[in-house]
């Protein structure tokens, strides 16, 4: 095909050429959508259809392609529109990410067509990482396949939270409602496993044009949106201006008498006069000016803007430093625990030298441990010594210089890293935990080999009607944690589920009987409970943990252990209410000084900064329980009562 | 932030990454609308002045208006201008169609210029929406020592982390406006008051949408003689921007072969 699929044209519904049309077109909202899924499930066909049905093809393009097809003696396929490269046409698969534009009445879109072949996962990552939302394509005849699962898992890890599932080739299954329902349940259960809930699941035939933009009579049982309507229902990414400031420095320029610190504000905002702290050095200075060319400079810049500033003092600042406001700065970390996807042919092993790139910073380091490795295609956990190509795992890296880092759940931009080996980008991941100092060497272990369970997670999901989970109930003593935990345990059990209630005090009578209440012993207590709860969750049970767990650091560690199963629930009740309840008489004793370091009275309770759920227990327990249950459904842990088997 | 603000911020970020991570870079200045927007963005990125040369790889077949524009604004914008000549047509691949051979001269001229100056990074104003092979480009595109593009083996590029590792003698192409559209370019040109070569405006019912060598570039039918009229025209047009560029259309894969060999 000739090189002119330049699809920047508009829909035919726009008004004729007027300057108001031009003005409207200039500042239209733009959303980036990646299309992923298993090879041959019809991504390119869907894209071709979308372009055609939204009137986005250049004049004569379709006719020209049909003519080329005829000349080659093959039937016309919609996917030809995208097969721009000779090499692709020969093999019939998309090699690299391609980007195409189209528009609906609502806004402009960039469609990122990601390759579905396992060989090209690095290209899929390249495409998907730029997207605001995703369409996950599944063949109605074949159902969920390896790349469907791999892509879905990577979308999640890349930070995408908006996914619509498109079940294609409904014509091949005679538009059968039951075939569709089976795939809908299958894919929803898989996505639910890491807390992702599809915005819609849409049956279509991309080849014939059913439910791309038009409702056809062939799917009378389906009442949801078309693909175009689902695209228009995605929301634009929210502004990060109200989050804590993260201003990574790209360079320090001295082109003239000014010393300008240049970079892009990743989150938060910055104003002239602000005191900034630069990590990892910790040096501080005030913003003297914001610089700009041409014209006058603003006095405030915010998330997304490229900026330049000067400081009131000559402190040492270099590329890679991150400026923040004093009380909310990233941690200068020399040890990182990362959930990593690996794209290189040679596996990543403990002892491998790597360079970790975080924002504009980079630091050399060594992989100190690969603690888990899983193939997202089938969720089989492999031997844990290395992380193979296209696997996802948890990796500990010891750095030779500190990097300014955040845990991913606090800041997406400074909570993710790219890992280079031999100067090539080989993987990327999100920071689960960042520690100031390199960890002490782990105790020497014997030849421990983890053995897989004989029962698969899917079998357990089918029986229990829920995913495994750790519900970590934290709050002041007597805030109502046990009451909520016990009520939920009863409710889930009555629904046929498998809840297990882990009470802090009860565990201290056995497993943790050797531990007292010093900060170190409290941490160890939490570590053990976290591992026990995580083990239960991985085996399909819902572990309900009721534990004061007063420090953020300890809960962060529990989150790390619980990984994707972990849900932090803040049980909130005012101190006076808790003290008024005092069922065990502990508050009274603490007030008299009979209990040392009692949380709430003589020891601090650090409220969660970003819990998955906050429950107020000053009201009716039934309402509290309903809110908790609604959350569990929303998070994909519980399946709504009217669904049949989720698998 | 508006759409143009977001495009601008990303482009500035890329300019600064290129300048920070590579040893010796230059920006290609083809005198067209895209590279003039690039110069403006670079001046914003570096607070008024380009800290690297602007290079024009000259075929000597450009329109007179383009040479006049170059000489005037190189001075006005205080550019460190490098002009390098292209080798004769006889040095190009004889199996390519005629217009493509003309374009291939530029590829060879670029290769020679990079070698002569020892640049390890070259900034180019291509855009994904121009044509399909460009839609597959990365912001930072590592090239082999011969300047060739291996589209099958492109390294991953995500989360604004770019590939700058090079083997000696190789270079990186940097594409700061890859994510812009033709419409964005004109809207930004208007917003920022960037000068424009008059050939883009309609004269006798025709105007140029894309400027190349005189002998292989044709004007399109158009009455658009102001920026507003160009924007209004683009809002409804259904022909492609490079439809006036002969070398794109001579055979099914002519442009793709040019690009694999190192054309922009």
Estimate the global geometry of chain A from the Cα principal axes: globular
* General form of chain B: globular
- Please give the number of β-strands of chain B: 8
Percent of residues of chain B in beta strands? 5-15%
Q: List low-pLDDT spans of chain B.
A: none
Strand order of the largest sheet of chain B: 3-2-1-4-6-5
CATH homology-level superfamily of the largest domain in chain A: P-loop containing nucleotide triphosphate hydrolases
Helix run count of chain A: 16
- What is the CA-atom radius of gyration of chain B, in angstroms? 18 Å
The strands making up the biggest β-sheet of chain A line up spatially as 2-3-1-4-5-6
Largest sheet of chain B: 6 strands, mixed
H-E order of chain B:
HEHEHEHEEEHEEHH
What is the CATH architecture annotation of the largest domain in chain A? 3-Layer(aba) Sandwich
From the N-terminal CA to the C-terminal CA of chain B, the straight-line distance is: 31 Å
Describe the protein:
The complex is a heterodimer of chains A (647) and B (264). Chain A is an alpha/beta fold and 647 residues long. Chain A folds into 4 domains: 19-233, 3-Layer(aba) Sandwich (Rossmann fold); 247-325, Elongation Factor Tu (Ef-tu), domain 3 (Beta Barrel), CATH 2.40.30; 331-435, Elongation Factor Tu (Ef-tu), domain 3; 464-634, P-loop containing nucleotide triphosphate hydrolases (Rossmann fold). Chain A is built from 16 helices and 28 strands. In chain A, the strands form 6 sheets. A 6-stranded mixed beta sheet of chain A has the order 2-3-1-4-5-6, sandwiched between helices. In chain A, a hairpin with a 2-residue loop joins β22 and β23 (424-435). The longest helix of chain A has 20 residues, at 519-538. The relative contact order of chain A is 0.08. Chain B has 264 residues and is of the alpha/beta class. Chain B has 2 domains: 3-180 and 253-260, HUPs (Rossmann fold, 3-Layer(aba) Sandwich); 197-248, no CATH class. In chain B, the strands form 2 sheets. In chain B, strands 3-2-1-4-6-5 form a 6-stranded mixed beta sheet, sandwiched between helices. In chain B, strands 7-8 form a two-stranded antiparallel ribbon. The two termini of chain B are 31 Å apart. The chains are: A alpha/beta (647), B alpha/beta (264).
